[in-house]
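[Automated response] Your request has been received and processed.

Submitted sequence:
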Amino acid sequence: MNTPFDPDPILPPKRGIIGRARGNFLTGLVVIAPVGLTIWLIWSVVGWIDGFVLPLVPLNYHPDRLIQDLLGFDPNVQINVRGIGVIIFLLFTMLVGWMAKGLIGRSFIRFAESLVERTPVVRSIYSGIKQISETIFAQSERSFEKACLIEYPRKGIWAIGFISTEAKGEIAARSDNTGDVMSIFLPTTPNPTSGFLLFLPKRDVIELDMSVEDSAKLVISAGLVYPNAKALEEGAAPIADLREKP
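Generated structure:
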């Protein structure tokens, strides 16, 4: 109970119309921005693929021309059918992959690669791109499927990285003979597409329970978006503690 001698409680100042309008605008921006940027990015990527694939298709077989002929529209009316180029690209890529698995396809690829290897400049470009493609798309090992903590750039400072593979060859032989060596990709904030390639002993790498997606969100947001943050604020136990319980 308050008495006449108690000091008056300090109430937060009331915001005016401009302050409330500004708050509503920022709240709406937080809701609209992720949706709008996602739609814009998908729309732009689909349009870029269409712009690359559709010029390779004969004019009489363009989707807009076929729709105009089917529905009887005026040929002067421009119809933009977005996404057909993506479908054509996917079907063409699957057809090439199916042909490459056969005997004729493998023979043709070996013959084409033998010609490329005789060309000085093209040989270096092709071999580099092929190695990157095989590492990313055709590798059977698990890569970039685990997030980890490492001490970087010095002891006592921790950074989030992504486990690539175990180091092999000369890197593994010359770096550390006492144990396995891991290749770690250390992304930069807020642009995770750039970063550093580090080779660390396996004993210095702490694997995290959080997914790669959650770790990427944490890196991109500069530490503002934590995985399962709401549950932790409500007193839920961390994942590590839950796994220790029987």
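Summary generated for your ticket: Residues 239-246 have pLDDT under 50 and may be disordered. The beta strands are 147-151, 158-166, 181-187, 195-201, 206-207.
If you did not submit this request, please reply to this message.
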